[in-house]
């Protein structure tokens, strides 16, 4: 598939549960004391298909800002939040524990694994989950998914009412499919390494209707609003662990206002046959314990913007938005 064709896919593929697509901001009862409008326009100026939804207060009770929140786009590693949620639910039921050791070996070895790529042995599930969220390690993700089962993760997604979200069985099966393997075929670590020396003539589009990592900003905001109030957990300590691990994500430091608690998970694709993705979704604690839940996402073609430059603008725009929102909430 041509690069521009992949981008063009995004616009018509709307979430089946969506009621409408907003193309401009909607504001309620907060003052704009921090150039919020300017920061929102800056994000909308990103190349490709920029999409965002930001709720101030539960379900946007004190403010709602949206731009194409129902666009069905590639969400990259942002899907790993659902794996964490299901893993912690399994800990609650006693099916597993955070102290259980999980294998780190060639059975799950994969690119995009900054923590575990060159390691072998076992480590605790707690360390695996931290690597999955903090550094978006793909091997950690597959270790966790193989333990809990992708269908169990999908069941949680369905329970949350997130009709747009699509996830793979493992990140390695997804990579294998992109590189030409039949659906459900794992090329293995040796096969994936061979791709580097003898790449296929074409890659399958990451955003497809077979195996993908996709969804909408609306559903990611809904997930974080529900999960961070404990809707899917029976115990307070489980919610604390869910929050603790999400607070470790390295991208938070690029957008959070000073001394402000943020829970988030991001993701990216860098120039895969010209296809690029940046996403950050989560929740910020603003004044008077008012939650600010958000998802910022764009898919774009390299001919419209180099990854590094767009990434810098992506984070700068979000930082401006969150700083302005916090200032506006504080000024109420």
Automatic annotation (TrEMBL):
Its EC number is 3.5.2.6. Residues 1-24 form the signal peptide. GO terms for molecular function: beta-lactamase activity. It catalyses: a beta-lactam + H2O = a substituted beta-amino acid. It is an enzyme of class 3 (hydrolase). GO terms for biological process: beta-lactam antibiotic catabolic process; response to antibiotic. It comes from the Bacteria. Residues 64-234 form the Beta-lactamase class A catalytic domain. Keywords: Signal. Pfam families: Beta-lactamase2. Belongs to the class-A beta-lactamase family. PANTHER family: BETA-LACTAMASE, BETA-LACTAMASE-TYPE TRANSPEPTIDASE FOLD CONTAINING PROTEIN. This is beta-lactamase. It comes from uncultured Sphingomonas sp.
């Amino acid at each position: 598939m041509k690069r521009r064709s992949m981008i063009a896919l995004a616009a018509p593929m709307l979430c089946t549960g969506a009621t409408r697509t907003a193309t401009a901001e909607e504001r309620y009862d907060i003052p704009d004391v921090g150039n919020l409008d300017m920061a929102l326009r800056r994000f909308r100026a990103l190349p490709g298909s920029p999409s965002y939804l930001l709720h101030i207060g539960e379900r946007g009770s004190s403010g709602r800002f949206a731009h194409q929140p129902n666009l069905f786009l590639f969400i990259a590693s942002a899907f790993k939040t659902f794996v964490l949620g299901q893993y912690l639910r399994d800990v609650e039921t006693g099916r597993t524990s955070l102290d259980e050791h999980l294998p780190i070996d060639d059975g799950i070895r994969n690119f995009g694994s900054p923590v575990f790529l060159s390691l072998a042995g076992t480590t605790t599930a707690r360390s695996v989950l931290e690597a999955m969220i903090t550094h978006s390690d793909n091997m950690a993700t597959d270790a966790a998914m193989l333990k809990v089962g992708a269908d169990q993760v999908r069941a949680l997604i369905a329970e949350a009412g997130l009709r747009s979200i699509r996830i793979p069985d493992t990140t390695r099966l997804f990579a294998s499919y992109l590189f030409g393997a039949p659906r459900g075929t794992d090329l293995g670590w040796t096969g994936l390494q061979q791709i580097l020396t003898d790449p296929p003539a074409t890659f399958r589009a990451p955003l497809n209707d077979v195996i993908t990592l996709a969804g909408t900003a609306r559903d990611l905001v809904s997930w974080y609003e529900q999960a961070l109030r404990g809707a899917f957990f029976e115990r307070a300590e489980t919610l604390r662990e869910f929050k603790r691990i999400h607070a470790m994500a390295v991208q938070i430091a690029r957008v959070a206002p000073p001394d402000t608690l943020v829970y988030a998970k991001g993701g990216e694709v860098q120039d895969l046959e010209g296809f690029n993705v940046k996403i950050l979704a989560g929740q910020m604690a603003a004044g008077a314990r008012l939650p600010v839940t958000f998802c910022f996402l764009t898919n774009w073609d390299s001919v419209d913007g180099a990854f590094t430059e767009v990434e810098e603008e992506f984070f700068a725009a979000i930082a401006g938005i969150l700083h302005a929102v916090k200032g506006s909430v504080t000024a109420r």
